[in-house]
Amino acid sequence: MSQSMHVPTLFDILQAQRRIRPYLAPTPLYSYPALNNLLGTSIYLKHENHLPVGAFKVRGGVNLIAQLSPEERTLGVIAASTGNHGQSVSYAARLFGVSSRIVVPLQANPGKVAAMQGMGSEVIFHGEKFDDAKHYCEELAQEHGYRYIHSGNEPDLIAGVATAYLEMLADEPELKTIIVPIGGGSGAAAACIAAKALNPTIKVIGVQSEASPAAYESWRQHRLIHAPNQTIAEGLATGTAFELPQRILWETLDDFLLVSDQEILQAMVWLLEHAHTLAEAAGASALAAAYRLRTELAGQKVGVICSGGNTSLVQLKQALALTNESKQ
């Protein structure tokens, strides 16, 4: 692994916290009696959906773009995204006066696309899946000299995202387990580094959709692999595992499970019903995993990351329709 892909340390995370604090307020950590009753344990929900772009990744975007060299700022940045990474880069680029381009798949979430355009990014549509957009993004970066911001293999993104876990454990130091959604894996890698630096006995559990299990299979097999990528949850939709997050997860992630898209949609509805919280599918996946693990988690204080709230109306209707069917 190259020096540019070093594993962030607690020192890096503390530096990131100092860097982003003028721009991003800490997000709340709430416990909801109705969710606690549903799962039979004490659930603490970390509201990353309250951040300016509605998702956790903006922490990393601000931390990285704040540190660009003058030349990189002049040439601008480019990223590939299914939505939240792109919004993070767009938000941070506008904050620091840097031009940005985001390459998205043709069927990208319209709300996320509109948000990126509204923040001043040029949005470039390419390919059916995220991996198609990513390859084209890399070509454009090479051709024009843009600073390419990978959605996973960026130590500064991971260090920025890890500030959420410093906040989480400052608010509730007695958490025994933290459950984190995994797409590319930057959020889970961040959780492992930050949480275990503060409490080496804490368990970090990752969750991915069984319809897009590349990160799960890579973690299980200790090698980077490709896998089918069919999930409805954009934030979990990667067909290829990312090197830097995986290297961190191989060493530090305690457990990893797959849940179905149907379980994720159910968790979206539970968050609406019991916590008055709008979560996108990826943002609800940690609750879906907590419900699956509720017997093992009984009696613990459990941190659950609501990683984002940028759902589409179509997906929200799908979730509500599914729940109505199950009640009939």
From TrEMBL:
GO terms for molecular function: L-serine ammonia-lyase activity; threonine deaminase activity. Transmembrane segments: none annotated. Keywords: Lyase, Pyridoxal phosphate. It catalyses: L-threonine = 2-oxobutanoate + NH4(+). InterPro entries: Ser/Thr_Dehydratase, TrpB-like_PALP, TrpB-like_PALP_sf. Gene3D superfamilies: 3.40.50.1100. It is an enzyme of class 4 (lyase). GO terms for biological process: isoleucine biosynthetic process; L-serine catabolic process; L-threonine catabolic process. Its EC number is 4.3.1.19. Residues 21-308 form the Tryptophan synthase beta chain-like PALP domain. Its cofactor is pyridoxal 5'-phosphate. Catalyzes the anaerobic formation of alpha-ketobutyrate and ammonia from threonine in a two-step reaction. The first step involved a dehydration of threonine and a production of enamine intermediates (aminocrotonate), which tautomerizes to its imine form (iminobutyrate). Both intermediates are unstable and short-lived. The second step is the nonenzymatic hydrolysis of the enamine/imine intermediates to form 2-ketobutyrate and free ammonia. In the low water environment of the cell, the second step is accelerated by RidA. Belongs to the serine/threonine dehydratase family. This is threonine ammonia-lyase.
